[in-house]
From TrEMBL:
PROSITE patterns (alphabetical): ABC_TRANSPORTER_1, ABC_TRANSPORTER_2
Species: Paraburkholderia xenovorans (strain LB400)
Gene Ontology process terms (BP): peptide transport; transmembrane transport
Assigned keywords, A-Z: ATP-binding, Cell inner membrane, Cell membrane, Membrane, Nucleotide-binding, Transport
GO molecular function: ATP binding; ATP hydrolysis activity
Protein name: ABC nickel transporter, ATPase subunit
Domain (ABC transporter) ranges: 2-238
Keyword Repeat: no
Taxonomic path: Bacteria, Pseudomonadati, Pseudomonadota, Betaproteobacteria, Burkholderiales
Domain of life: Bacteria
Signal sequence range: none
Protein family (similarity comment): Belongs to the ABC transporter superfamily.
UniProt keyword Translocase, yes or no: no
Entries under PANTHER family matching the protein: D,D-DIPEPTIDE TRANSPORT ATP-BINDING PROTEIN DDPF-RELATED, TRANSPORT ATP-BINDING PROTEIN
Length: 305
């Protein structure tokens, strides 16, 4: 759980009882509307936000156990932010930005660190001419490649990516997306991708979790979730996503959800989606559905699934 008290005496329940497992080498997508708690969950996994309740386990070791050894934790988990220009120091050259985590962790002499920086540039397909430049001298795509290279400098096992493509031009997104897919396979990384674009998630993710108002309502293999969504909210998300096929787009009927999402400071009783669900039943208004398995790999929080 991740709750935020406000000055008005109310509590915003950004993440409210989430059970999420990410396997080694898995490309896990987390999707949902703005304000559903995706970023708060991602920041908590990365240790940037303390959980109000519950625990985060990395290889069976609780996140709180790492508090006294923050440097060791950062070698396992790295975070890639939405805006690379904001996450990179504007006063450091690319060489300095990439070498800084190696120096902080005491990895090798200067000559070894330079070799590692050269390897990182090759990993993200950047020329060595970038090393002497400041971030403002690079394009948006190049800056995001630098941010990815910096995150990989310590050979992490988990990458948490919070909307890493949203600040980029459409023409650059495919290149960065392919880079993530290549790195995940080459380095056997576990990647958690926060995204709004369902087409991107469908293309690269092996497993997907859908969040609504601080809770995960459905999770499962990407091909199953997109082919046969079980939760009404998942179906609504997929119905609202435009198709790249003009014929399908012309004949598509979009069923818009009624109303706005409730406030995370005052979630409704029972199922949190019942105020907008077209299939709502009396039990949905009084009893909160638990996340339960439907088959071997898909779990859904819905009384009607």
């Amino acid at each position: 759980m991740v709750h935020f008290p406000t000055s008005r005496g109310v509590t915003v329940r950004a993440v409210d009882g989430v059970n999420l497992q990410v396997q080694q080498g898995e490309f896990h997508g987390i999707v949902g509307e703005s304000g559903c708690g995706k970023t708060s969950l991602a920041r908590t996994i990365a240790g940037l936000q303390r959980p109000t309740g519950g625990s985060v386990l990395i290889d069976g070791r609780e996140l709180n156990d790492w508090r006294g050894d923050r440097l060791a934790f950062s070698r396992h988990v790295q975070f890639i932010f939405q805006d690379p220009l904001a996450s990179l120091s504007r006063r450091q050259t690319i060489q300095e930005s990439l070498e800084e985590p190696l120096r902080i962790h005491g990895i090798g002499p200067a000559s070894e660190r330079r070799r590692r920086v050269a390897q990182l540039l090759q990993l993200v397909s950047l020329p060595e001419a970038c090393l002497d430049r400041l971030p403002r001298a690079l394009s948006g795509g190049q800056r995001q490649r630098v941010a990815i290279a910096r995150a990989l400098a310590l050979d992490p096992r988990i990458l948490i990516c919070d909307e890493p493509l949203s600040a980029l031009d459409v023409s650059i997104r495919a290149q960065i997306l392919n880079l993530f897919a290549d790195l995940q396979k080459k380095l056997d990384l576990s990647i958690v991708l926060i995204a709004h674009d369902l087409a991107i998630v469908r293309l690269v993710c092996t497993r997907v979790s859908v969040m609504y108002l601080g809770k995960i309502v459905e999770t499962g293999p990407a091909h199953d979730l997109f082919a046969q969504p079980r939760h009404p909210y998942t179906r609504a998300l997929l119905d609202a996503a435009p198709s790249t096929d003009p014929k399908i787009e012309r004949s598509r009927r979009v069923s818009l959800l009624a109303g706005d999402p409730p406030s995370p400071s005052a979630p409704p009783s029972g199922c949190r989606f019942h105020t907008r669900c077209p299939l709502v039943k009396p039990v949905c208004k009084t009893e909160e559905p638990m996340l339960r398995y439907i088959g071997d790999q898909v779990s859904v929080a819905c009384h009607l699934a």
